[in-house]
Amino acid sequence: MTLAELATHLGAVLEGDPAARITRVAGIEDAVAGDLAFVANPKYASLAHTTKATAVLVEPGFPDISAATLRLKNPYLAFARAIELFYQPPAYAPGIHTTAVIAASARIGTNAHIGAYAVVMDHVVVGDNAVILPHVVLYPYVRAGDNLFVHAHAVVREHCQLGDNVILQNGAIIGADGFGFAKQPTEGPGKTWYKILQSGPAILEDAVEIQANACIDRASIGETRIHAGAKVDNLVQVGHGSTVGADTLLCAQVGLAGSTIIGRDVILAGQVGVAGHCTIGDGAIATAQSGIPGDVAAGKVVSGYPAIDNRQWLRSVTLFNRLPEVLREIKSKLK
User: Fold this and answer.
1) Which residues are catalytic?
2) Residues 153 and 288 placed together within one structural domain of the fold
3) Percentage of residues of the chain with pLDDT beyond 70
């Protein structure tokens, strides 16, 4: 593809040879001639001056560099769109593999692809254009909308509901039992904790994506709900009875204890933990490894454990690093 064609497709302003050809998309550190790279993070801006890429996606005000530039407001989004031009994922033709097991009472929409050893149990309803890859299991009474895409070894438990355009990556578990046990007076191995039946489904609304080996637990009563457009990263735990708002991001290894309420457009960075029965307001951000023991107001940015205002936390960390020096100063003045 020529740079002129690429610029037109992305809606970018081209500075450079319009006839130059792009054959691949690559990271700016590793790019070679024929590659398209991008700069969206200022941390990597200096690499744009030394990259061997033929062209770089940059913001409109980015300085001139030796490589051709495609200038537009959101280089990262343009980079994502460019990948789609150069990489075509596997296509899955409609059809049902001979080893798939589909209950007679299940209803599958048109144009479905169902892979080897997939299991679709009684009274499951799946909309049109589904792709269900090998070893997926849909338990009884699962309901899913159109354009469902389920990667190998994902499991959806009984009575759970999935909207349109839902994606489940490998090993995602939707509706496993929540962690609920009641202490009982009888003691001894296997007798101390009484298992609470987890009767409420997990519900994923439209355009939700659950990535690899994440767990969305079912509720003891009521429901666990992931609202439209939310994205849940690898190894995330959403506890029973929790609610995750629309377009929220839960990054890798986030853990939500039971009955947590997360607002819309929230970002919980990697390894954030939220205690049960907490409410995180719309638009809040928690930086990586924050521990949240209580409610967080809408729009707040919090860090640390217990999580506090990010700016206060940054000042506290700076002071903490100076404590040995401060202690020496105090001791010298006491002599």
Assistant:
1) 240
2) yes
3) 100
